[in-house]
Design a protein that fits this description.
The structure is a homodimer of 283-residue chains. Chain A has 283 residues and is α/β, with parallel strands linked by helices. The first copy, chain A, has ten helices and ten strands. The first copy, chain A, has two domains: 3-174, Rossmann fold (3-Layer(aba) Sandwich); 187-281, 2-Layer Sandwich (Pantoate--beta-alanine Ligase, Chain: A,domain 2). In chain A, strand 6 (144-148), helix 7 (152-164) and strand 7 form a beta-alpha-beta unit.
Chain lengths: 283, 283
């Protein structure tokens, strides 16, 4: 039976005991409402740790004042059921007041990688993400932590943070899991009406259309972006937030020709729901 | 014989091995040029750890562009000799390029406690301090870390950071060590000429003059500050940076009467040398 811990101090002391006993700890930090993407992370964690920890915490500091914190979907019972099936041994489910007590005032910034893309449309988002993940690393003390590549910029920020702060944690990304029609798995897909669900397909169609052109030999950043943009714009129910080609490692904007591994990343609103997706062009 | 490690990865793996073997690690982070204040920290560390680690690192990110980074005094051989005498078992002496490699971009901010006092005259200083100490904590993995109370605001910032980031480290402050004439020990005292050395005594005289008035019953913040200021101003070779009464825990400015433990803190220039000192009024 999966064990549930709610108290941060208890989580930390449990992790310390596991470490002292020579156990390897693998870790999947989430905001809950688990989907097949999370399941792939938990199944990877099963092969990587003696103790497999899942955290479920809808982190308020990574939401902007006008974002969807209050309506973010939750289903703890369903999540624990999925977690147990995927081999998680311990679920850490803290309250916000225990994570950010009165007087809380410490934040981490990963400067360059947090600029642009989601960092431009969500000010403070990556500082909130980096801070909560650092705190969770201190509490869970994992050897390896798993994140989905859908949040591509987040993964780059967290890898950089782990390296810069000398953390003894391997931050590992796993491929995006998609519905059979191509839609990237996201807890936020739950917000979509049946009609919006169809509209949302344009995101993956746009970036894969461009990826196919790349595979056939197109290397011009301008041409690849233009094609994806044209596909996106063909659906009038979509409001584009950004569409960018960035170096897959440094996240620097790619001009001219694509000559190194490059991520084609998109963010767009379907109704009031903001969705993101990306594909790596393996130059 | 004291062991010296220069490589951060080696330090971290050594600390991990000590932890795995059940050893307690005590830690004294310094910028070197050790004086009797540091010796008191190292001697305390001797009683608190099986492994006693000293770090010596003149941290560039806590110096402003016009500050004394390039001329900060150094004496590695002398430091190691003192450290060995005080029971240190391992000295960590990294190069700046190993601590801040190319592309480094992650910083920690402890917001409220870094405002005012030294934070006002040294923008970015406490972010630099918090960041290097967090990195050193990840590398050295101490159970307890010791800091002098002379850097009173620094100690408050680091205690708050450790708590906010869920670090499993006790951050402990030890009393200021003074020369027989009252001057607070500081590596920067090495900058002072014989004459400036005499001028510098006015800092401790001012705050202790005010402290004596407090002990005799004076509780008015205004009166206590006025007295200290009057003493400071009596020496024309001193340029005052700040003189403040702050709550010893929250570091909030104290107006009206002193009714809780309160720190009377001063910073002043003697020539181009900036010195700080403080005393706690034990209300």
């Amino acid at each position: 039976m999966i064990e549930v811990l709610r108290n941060p101090a208890e989580m930390r002391s449990r992790a310390g005991a596991l470490r002292a006993a020579g156990k390897r700890i693998s870790f999947v930090p989430t905001m809950g409402y688990l989907h097949a993407g999370h399941v792939s992370l938990m199944e990877a964690a099963r092969d990587l740790g003696d103790a497999r920890v899942l955290s479920i915490f809808v982190n308020p500091t990574q939401f902007g004042p006008k974002e969807d914190l209050s309506r973010y979907p939750r289903d703890l019972d369903g999540d624990l059921h999925k977690a147990e099936g995927a081999g998680i041994t311990l679920a850490f489910v803290p309250e916000a007041a225990a994570i950010y007590p009165d007087g809380y005032q410490t934040f981490v910034e990963v400067s360059d990688l947090s600029q642009g893309m989601c960092g431009a449309s969500r000010p403070g988002h990556f500082s909130g993400v980096a801070t909560i993940v650092l705190k969770l690393f201190h509490l869970v003390q994992p050897h390896v932590a798993l994140f989905g590549e859908k949040d591509f910029q987040q993964l780059a920020v967290l890898k950089r943070m782990a390296r810069d702060l000398d953390l003894d944690v391997e931050v590992r990304g796993l491929p995006i899991v998609r519905e059979s029609d191509g839609l990237a798995m996201s807890s936020r897909n739950a917000y979509l009406s049946a009609e919006q669900r169809q509209d949302a397909l344009i995101l993956s169609r746009a970036i894969f259309g461009s990826r196919d052109r790349f595979v056939k030999g197109e290397r011009s950043a301008e041409a690849l972006l233009a094609l994806a943009r044209e596909i996106l714009m063909s659906n009038k129910n979509i409001r584009l937030d950004y569409l960018e080609l960035r170096d897959a490692e440094s996240l620097k904007t790619v001009d001219g020709n694509v000559g190194r591994p490059t991520v084609l990343a998109v963010a767009a609103f379907v109704g009031s729901t903001r969705l993101i997706d990306n594909v790596v062009l393996p130059a």
